[in-house]
Amino acid sequence: MMDCSSATITGVFYLVFSRDWFTIYLINIIMSVSALVLAFICPESPRWLLYNGRTDEAIEAINYIAKFNGSSEKIPLDATFEESL
């Protein structure tokens, strides 16, 4: 699951700082797995969804984020958005 940058960091850590590479390797694995899990939990960016014409999904994402932040207010699904510069 490690990407190229994690492997590079592990190699540099091994050569420069310590011969005990397992610690940094374990940290990289934990970070990679947590990024994978968060990719499925976090919603798409509402701005990206609006830009691509997926208004209903953008409103659902905004309402999800608001609920996660403790707000009880919701945007109705029939809301319209205006483009601004």
Defining traits:
85 residues; 64% helix
Tell me about this structure.
The protein has 85 residues and is an all-alpha fold. It has two domains: 4-41; 43-85, no CATH class. Helices cover 64% and strands 0% of the residues. The chain has four helices and no strands. The protein has helices spanning 4-17, 22-41, 46-51, 55-68.
Give the arrangement of secondary structure elements.
Blueprint: H1 4-17, H2 22-41, H3 46-51, H4 55-68
Q: How many individual helices?
A: 4
Report the count of strand segments: 0
Unreliable parts? none
Rounded average pLDDT: 79
What's a quick, concise take on this entry?
By secondary structure, this protein is mainly α.
